[in-house]
Target: Class I SAM-dependent methyltransferase
Amino acid sequence: MSRQLWEREYLNPAISSSTNRQPSHGTAFLRGCLPRIARVRGPRRLLDLGCGGGRNAGVLTETGLAYHGMDFAYRPLAKAAARDTDGSLRLVQGSMADRLPFADGAFSLVTAFTSVENVVEDRQLRTLAEEARRVLCPGGLLYVYFLTTEDDYYRPLVDLGPDGRSLTYDPVTGLRQRVYRLSELSALFHPSFALLDSEEFVFRDTRSNGTYLRRLAAGLWASG
Ligand SMILES: C[S@@+](CC[C@H](N)C(=O)[O-])C[C@H]1O[C@@H](n2cnc3c(N)ncnc32)[C@H](O)[C@@H]1O
Model:
């Protein structure tokens, strides 16, 4: 269901990342992590989960790692492929809520830019962390840029469940997503990953129905 909604979103975009050709705000903190990424002694490859149209591929290749993007929707992957003029991007269709279609220890870095929001169950998040750890080499890094519970667009859409999860339903896109606090995400990634560093992002963003103060955050985790 959610895959069909994302296919529709790329056909009739409401979310800025679906059309924006500029890299995500979250790539700014990643640039600051480049020295730490360079110290990972592993395969010279990275995996970008929920890669969308590949707008972050340019910045991510500054790591010196070969870009592998995975998304479960076909339309954004076709967009990423169309942008890949030199054929350097490896693009795979698959869901990050399932077993990842890669060998153990295949990557030095796994990234996710505003995509873990679509994995809403604790159990699925823990499986995702275990899978990310499995495909990373020893000492590999996980970088996640995510929507927080304080984000002005999503905060009014939050339906706080009895289990404390902040689930959102967006009537514009029809998407059900989960917004996080850094501590919550870190707890779900434990014991597969330990938090190394984090940063908050606050910026204005215009969507079809108004301008909002967006509050996102990024974290860098090391595989445990
Ligand atoms: C907000 S977009 C972000 C795209 C890209 N990371 C960016 O920053 O431009 C979220 C992306 O996650 C993808 N996605 C959502 N759930 C997914 C899943 N279970 N497995 C793989 N991709 C998923 C969507 O198709 C969409 O392309």
Q: What stands out?
A: The domain at 2-223 is CATH 3.40.50.150 (Rossmann fold).
